[in-house]
Design brief:
alpha/beta, 10 strands, binds adenosine-5'-triphosphate, single chain
């Protein structure tokens, strides 16, 4: 469904991403793990059209979409839940969801709102609450629900468990599992490597802008040598 080929992205003269080639197949949950500053956010941004790669390509559903604007990518079926959630705090929960569903028709949007209320009961209870009053865990669920409102073919999430209390971290990983059980396709950046590998079909390890390992979640969990690289390490 998604393929990056030799993707390189720079900030000025610094190459934050070097020659990264990865793939995500339909119905797969793919993890992207690595230390702080490894280039994980840069990679998602380069796929979603927020950043322009200097070389390489992004192929989505068989089409070359390299450098396409984020709204075009969203319409093509690729949604990103950004780091730090970035929900609209001055809008209500349901208004945030409607904004997320702007690319789908009004009749379909009503059905999607129902679906989100079922998937996220916490949000149903706070439908008319201003999103600025949500807790961190609720805001994260809203950010994910808002992205799902666009009916993405591929959902990318950047550090969904970041900054959450342990019980809410559990909830995020349960949610990833339930999205996986629904057959959705996910590419998830996580610093919580062990937890992510447990719910990943496959995963990639990024370090200093380069992929240093890939394998099934189970295979990478066995690689104790890699854990020194990405757990609490530096890029
Ligand atoms: P983290 O988990 O800390 O978010 P990351 O793996 O997502 O890390 P990136 O945020 O992609 O890493 O950063 C990769 C590298 O690019 C880092 O060295 C970072 O300092 C640098 N970088 C990121 N954003 C910018 C920017 N806007 N301008 C210059 N350098 C940047």
């Amino acid at each position: 469904m998604l393929e990056t080929v030799g993707l390189t992205t720079t900030y000025g003269s610094i190459a934050a991403l070097r020659d990264v080639s990865l793939s995500v197949g339909e119905g797969e949950v793919v993890g992207l793990i690595g230390p702080n500053g490894a280039g994980k956010t840069t990679l998602l941004g380069s796929i979603a059209g927020l950043l322009q790669p200097v070389s390489g390509s992004v192929v989505f559903e068989g089409s070359d979409v390299t450098g396409n604007a984020p709204d075009k990518m969203l319409k093509a079926g690729l949604a990103l839940v950004p780091e730090h959630r970035r929900i609209f705090t001055d809008l209500t929960v349901v208004e945030n969801l409607k904004v997320g569903g702007i690319t789908v028709g009004a009749s379909e949007r009503a059905g999607l709102l129902e679906e989100m209320a079922d998937l996220f009961p916490v949000l149903r209870d706070k439908w008319e609450t201003s999103a600025g009053f949500l807790s961190g865990g609720e805001a994260q669920q809203l950010a994910i629900a808002r992205a799902l409102m666009s009916k993405p073919r591929l959902l990318m999430m950047d550090e969904p468990s970041l900054g959450l209390a342990p019980v809410l971290v559990d909830l995020v990983f349960e949610l990833i599992e339930s999205l996986r059980n629904q057959g959705r396709t996910l590419l998830v950046v996580e610093q919580n490597a062990t937890r992510m590998l447990e719910v990943s079909d496959r995963a990639y390890v990024l370090r200093s802008g380069e992929l240093v390992a890939e394998g099934t979640g189970a295979e990478l969990l066995e690689r104790s040598d890699l854990f020194d690289t990405f757990v609490g390490g530096t890029s």
